[in-house]
Model the fold of this input.
Amino acid sequence: MFHTQSTPRILLFFIAIFVKLLASMLGGIGFVWKDTAMMVTGTFIWLTWFTLLFLIAMPRTDKFLQNQIYWLKPSAIVISTFLFIAGLGLLITMTSFGTGVFQSEDPNGKSNELMTSFEGVLSYNDGTALCHQAIESLIDGHNPYATPNIVTATILYDNSYDQVTPLREGEFANVFPYPSDTQLEQLWQRVSQNPQQIPPELESKLNYPAGCFMLPSFFFLIGIDDFRIVLLIYVLPALAYVAWKVPRNKKLLFISAVLISLEIWFGIAAGETGSLIFPFLLLAWILLRRQLWLSAIFMGIAIATKQVAWFFVPYYLILIFKTMNLKRTLVVVLIVAGIFFAFNLPFIIIDPLLWFTSVMAPVIDDLFPLGVGIITLVTGGVLYIQSPLLFTILELLFGVTAIIWYYHNCNRYPHVGPLLAVLPLFFAWRSLWPYFFYVDIIILADILLDDNIIESSKRLAPVSLVDSYTV
Done:
């Protein structure tokens, strides 16, 4: 697998996978146990992952680390082997025995608390439950944006009450930084007695664009009614296509990286809605320099499905403009926008205000701070900041700076685009881990495919395009 052509930054990628999993683990455990030190440590490890990914996206890293192969290669081998065995062992254990095998005899013990939370992670979250409910509403001929009910969705799909999204409303208006498990449980016991009455304390809007329920609807119509299976149907072919296109001597590298990226598989197992846009963002980015019109279609589907994809659009268009021309950029804009409105325009026409307030709910509604970014300083109790204004300013500042930097540097560093797209979210009021979990695979695929792109560019493309992918 790690042959002589494995460059330092590709080997560094496998180390970055371990760093990301470590950051996710510490942040997740810290949140469940309310351990400030673990939460903040997880955040700093996330920053380390961002730094590693930035280095991986930089071609000059290969030259800089050329003399470090002696430890990079064995480290990558050990990490890959460990994560593969650990992931396989966890899969076998979970499917055979469930989480009970990890629980202690003390019902209030920390291991039991952690396993209870882990069970929730491996079931529908509130976003997935609302998407599932929306699909059934669409099939029944109703406007999915007019019929969401988080209480009935949680009960119907056997979701856990601690997977809902609380709002700073009603009895939670004076709670900060986040409602306790006891407060959530007490609220749930009350609202579950009258499921048709949606409480102000819970987010119940379908806050995704229409692709989130239109893409899976066909599979539900033919009898595949588990959102997680639909995610597999979309993700696996996209990954298989990339593996097919990657140069022969690096196929195993890509497949291995995908297999040990456990957060991708956990995301699918949990029905994480980010998994639905992952394959489309992946294909949109790698096809940009191969089949531009097809790439634009995939990007249009991505932005029509979930808002996180919107952050990729500026970098996507900049790369097209800087390596091709304005005419092609405008054509791509028309295709992307056309697909977005093809999915969403019917619902905009039916009730524009309802559609807007639903899709923009993450910005409009009064949400509690949450995530793996610098917001852990607030959720962990280090800082007491009740307003999201500062974090919004930081998010905008980093976002604008990243766009300007990429505009001037994308010819030299094209692979950095996906990383810069999600980096501002790390400084947001809400910086959930699914915003970041698939970006590294997109970058890795783009780097591995460059071997073929550069060779074909030398024969077919303008000099400016060739120069943009050489160091």
